[in-house]
Amino acid sequence: MKLLYLDTETTGLTDNSAIVQIAGAIEIDGEVVEWFNIRCKPHVGADISENALQTIGLTLEELNKEQSPADALKELESIFSKYVDRYDKNDKLIMICHNYPFDFRMLFNFYNRLNNKYMGSFLDFKLNVCTLNLIRSLQVIGILPILENNKLETWCKHFNVKLENAHDALEDIRATREVYLNIAKLLKKS
Q1: In what order do the strands lie in the sheet with 31-39?
Q2: Is-contact 37 76, C-beta < 8 A?
Q3: How far apart are CA 145 and CA 12, in angstroms?
Q4: 106: which residues sit within 8 A by CB, 6+ positions away?
Q5: Per the database record, which ranges form the Exonuclease domain (predicted)?
Q6: Which of 7, 30, 149, 154 has the highest local Cβ count within 10 Å?
Q7: How far is CA 39 from CA 22, 144, 168, in A?
Q8: What pairs with residue 129 in β-bridges?
Q9: By the 8 A CB rule, do 139 and 145 touch?
Q10: Low-confidence spans in the chain with pLDDT less than 70
Q11: Domain 2-189: which CATH class?
Q12: Is the full-model pTM beyond 0.85?
């Protein structure tokens, strides 16, 4: 099985917000074969929230020194191409994110903004895991406790997962993977 743990950092929450960081891990049959951390400047005309910039800890000036979104997408697809045959409909990465709908939507918009309609060449659109929704489901059936909230940081504390710099996509995705593995262990025991 080919898994893609993925997290994005953006300039806001709207559909016109820009991805400025994409980080992830590609795991094949239980072994991480690659970690990646891609940064780029916002696209022209992007919605940019001051709160989002504060959250990610970067200024617009710092972001504008990064590579173009087009170059970032080329870098991302070159990584995906190492592990997936884009022409084989059965050879795709299964995305795992803490808030899958958000990261998927932002990545989908990123591709579309660059006139690239081939995100599905690399990703399985039918099969994915949202650790946030998984946690909520397990809370409902009593396998996981109801905590103060379901933020990644809160679940990291619960599972004793180290998270030093929340809202850095690479740190977040390392933590997401560890939270997911802890949940998987619980489920296997159940």
Answers
A1: 31-39, 19-28, 2-10, 93-97, 123-130
A2: no
A3: 30
A4: 8, 10, 17, 19
A5: 2-189
A6: 7
A7: 6, 35, 11
A8: 96
A9: yes
A10: none
A11: alpha beta
A12: yes
Q: Maximum Cα–Cα distance for the chain, whole Å?
A: 50
Query: Can you read off the two tokens belonging to residue 169?
Result: 């996509």
Tokens 């559909």 found at: 15
Closest C-alpha among 124, 106, 121 to residue 69: 106
| Residue 24 tokens, joined | 């992830």
Residue type, 188: K
Q: CA 29, CA 101: separation in Å to the nearest integer? A: 25
Tokens of residue 120, six digits? 């599905």
Q: Using CA atoms, how far apart are residues 34 and 4, in angstroms rounded to an integer? A: 10
3-class DSSP state of 155: helix
User: Contact at 8 Å (CB) between 80 and 91?
Assistant: no
CB atoms within 10 A of CB 115: 7
Find the length of the chain. 190
Residues 122-165: pLDDT tens digits? Answer: 999 999 999 999 999 999 999 999 999 999 999 999 999 999 88
Classified as helix, coil or strand, 83 is: helix
Residue with tokens 């396998």: 143
- Each as own residue / partner, the long-range contacts of residues 75-78 (CB below 8 Å, 24 or more positions apart, any chain) are 75/38, 76/22, 76/36, 76/38, 77/122
